[in-house]
Amino acid sequence: xxxxxxxxxxxxxxxxxxxxxxxxxxxxxxxxxxxxxxxxxxxxxxxxxxxxxxxxxxxxxxxxxxxxxxxxxxxxxxxxxxxxxxxxxxxxxxxxxxxxxxxxxxxxxxxxxxxxxxxxxxxxxxxxxxxxxxxxxxxxxxxxxxxxxxxxxxxxxxxxxxxxxxxxxxxxxxxxxxxxxxxxxxxxxxxxxxxxxxxxxxxxxxxxx
Length: 209
Description:
The chain is about 25% helix and about 25% strand. It is α+β, with helices and mostly antiparallel strands. The two termini are about 30 Å apart.
């Protein structure tokens, strides 16, 4: 290799080092704030989503009572009720809507809706991406915590940089927080546990060192 080639290689290496150091410095300067430990809303009400199973009970009309799935388009179909939107409603609201639909055929229907299998609307599901053992979407549950989520996804992979995990909170306009998943899962540090909100996204990066 000639002197000029050596010079070009050395210059390229210097720029690579400068670039890496700049990335590290920039990353440190833009570290996300820690996620708040409390996040659950006391007024939370479960909303029905595609894939849920709802049990419709029509008082004094057993022939109209049955369990039906919420279709992928967010609607349900039952006797005398066709293509009724269910997605995004709570059980009480859906009960009143079914009563209105049945009121065309029977007098003063009384309907109770019970959700028996829970998936929830896509906007409220919890998504876990990256270096989780089983990345997946999870239905949100009131008072759900980071520890609950990590148990459901089987913890971290051997290559995860758990303490660099980002929590993306869609309920706050995609605001980003940092969470210490490694401290929580590997070291049992309960101070790293935080409550989860509907629609949260956990992004677990790979460790490069």
